[in-house]
Amino acid sequence: MSKIEFPQNFLWGSATASYQAEGAYKEDGKGLSIWDVYTHIEGNSKNNSNGDVASDHYHKYKEDIKHMKECGQNSYRFSISWPRILPEGRGKINPKGIEFYKNMINECLKNDIKPFVTIYHWDLPQSLQDIGGWENKETAYAFRDFSKILYEELGDKVELWVTFNEPRFFIYSGYLIGNYPPSYNDPQKTIQASYNVMLANAFAIEEFRKSNAKGKIGLVHSFSPVYAISDSKEDRIALRNADNYFNNWVLDTAVKGKFPQDLIDKLNRNYDLSFMNKEDLEIIKNNTVDFIGLNYYARALVKAYTIGETVLKVNNSGKAKQGSSKIVVKDWFEMVADPKSKFTDWDTEIYPRGLYDGIMMVKERYDNIPIYITENGIGMVEEMVSGEIDDSPRIEFLKLHLIEIYNALSSGADVRGYYVWSTFDLYSWVNGYEKRYGLMYVDYENNNKRIPKKSYHWYKDVINSNGSIL
Ligand code: BG6
């Protein structure tokens, strides 16, 4: 292989999300989010942990940005806590919330780090959940108004925006699997919430284009490129069903402005889609993204559905639970585990090649649209030994994925940046603090002290060499 060299203007970054990083959950006028409420209910998260303090990024962001700078990173992806800006989800603005994000952005710019803002990374204001959350179209209108405030307040300094982080993941977890708030197990509600989120995405893009904000706007998708175990007719049908289930309703709708017709036809047979209307669909059609963010953790390998009820079992329990996940969607497809593959402690397949294939799929389907790899990383249980963290498996993981990105660039894909998940260890939703992803270790027992891991130093060398050490 010839020497690896990423494009000169490539963005090298890392990412966080407000609820997982900031803490300060009641400070400076912030309202409660659904996650604040959910994690305070016993039994909802690992060891009943919560993001009250998280990694204390609210107080340590300057130090964190300094670490990014020293690592050579030139972009930082973070999200805005909606209830920090609008404690009730709508109405009165909390000036301290605006101030916090202005400071964060200024600190990035001072350090030549391009801020990449995610408008929504799952921390819906509880007051909006109280009116029905994403099932209620009112929430989509509230999101539009929230986005407008952000463009007005921050739009002169931010060039990269995304409306949502992973619609598929938070909707399915909250409405279909039920292991995230609002904890439903209901396909009809899932469909309605999905529709409202894609409508909200279009509303926010419409507002963006009306505003004076500079830059570009996209959406981040939890990308599971789908493979079938064979080329039989049945498996090919399963592949298409799974692709609609995992990817197309988000990507097609965001990029082409239209829900996949075969998906709508299939859903129409069993569910009530009367909430869809011409006016909304017109808004969705006319307000599509400038780029796509892909979060890549694993692919989906599927075969034809055979028998039995829908099972959606995901592993949030960690170590020694490999083999405990199962996804069967009745009449659609069954997911299978490749016995030859390696899996993380949390049962996620390690499959770097899927990133290459996935990028190429997106390139082909969506007319060479610009792509950012907005998350990629591996969750592990880690311990400090003599003050150091040797996370060599993470280095290997990131390295293999970066090589696939380079291969995709060499095949003509327009990949513009890469963000490691995560900047430092974070609160991992219902997995609590046990599952670590960071380039920097957070010593939760010791004032949340940051300690760069081996991967931090390695990432610095990758960036400094523009990829050639890979
Ligand atoms: C992505 C999310 O789906 O995966 C992150 O955008 C999340 O917020 C990450 O933390 C890893 O998932 P988990 O559950 O292992 O923390």
TrEMBL record:
Can you tell me which residues form the catalytic site? E166, E375
**Enzyme Commission number:** 3.2.1.21
Q: Does the keyword Cell division apply?
A: no
Presence of keyword Repressor: no
UniProt-annotated binding residues for substrate: Q20, H121, N165, Y297, W421
What UniProt keywords are attached to this protein's entry? Carbohydrate metabolism, Cellulose degradation, Glycosidase, Hydrolase, Polysaccharide degradation
MF terms in GO: beta-glucosidase activity
Q: Which reaction does it catalyse?
A: Hydrolysis of terminal, non-reducing beta-D-glucosyl residues with release of beta-D-glucose
One GO BP annotation is: cellulose catabolic process
Q: Which GO terms describe its cellular component?
A: cytosol
> What NCBIfam families has UniProt attached to this entry?
BGL (TIGR03356)
Can you tell me which family this protein belongs to?
Belongs to the glycosyl hydrolase 1 family.
User: Could you identify this protein by its name?
Assistant: Beta-glucosidase
Q: Which organism is it from?
A: Maledivibacter halophilus
